[in-house]
């Protein structure tokens, strides 16, 4: 399979994962994030035994971090795919950001129809911010900002 097609397959697979996670009823979604939170709490308590963790607060942070991370990766994958298809610069960034924002909006609308879930404007903003950081990170990588030594 050539790299152009593979790059878009990765985008579709990642968007499918986002859709799958958003399609989970609130009870399943909360169970998954609680399990992740519990593992993180155990690690934090082992590393810093004098630290008192608040699992409920940490669970909220993890859930919101997952929003940001999912769209951070989506932004990177979109930029990679666009570059593979000879779309560069501001045009690529604009297309990638538009797709991230539209997908974030559709994702939140989708959640309205899932038991126990709701669509949140704050999540659209967080998702979009993740997309922006992913896009900018990819641009920085392409410009070799991370690789330049002084």
Summarize the structure.
The protein contains five helices and no strands. With 150 residues, it is mainly alpha-helical. The protein is globular.
Q: Please identify the structural class as seen in this structure.
A: mainly alpha
Percent range of helical residues: over 70%
Shape category:
globular
> How many structural domains can be distinguished in the coordinates?
1
| First-residue to last-residue Cα separation | 39 Å
Describe the main β-sheet briefly: none
* Spans of at least 5 consecutive residues with low confidence: none
Residue-averaged pLDDT:
87
Describe the secondary-structure layout.
Elements: H1 3-22, H2 26-47, H3 55-84, H4 89-112, H5 121-142
Describe the structure in your own words:
It is a single chain. With 150 residues, the protein is mainly α. It has one domain. It is 79% helix and 0% strand. It is built from five helices and no strands. The protein has helices at 3-22, 26-47, 55-84, 89-112, 121-142. The chain starts with a helix and ends in an 8-residue tail after the last helix.
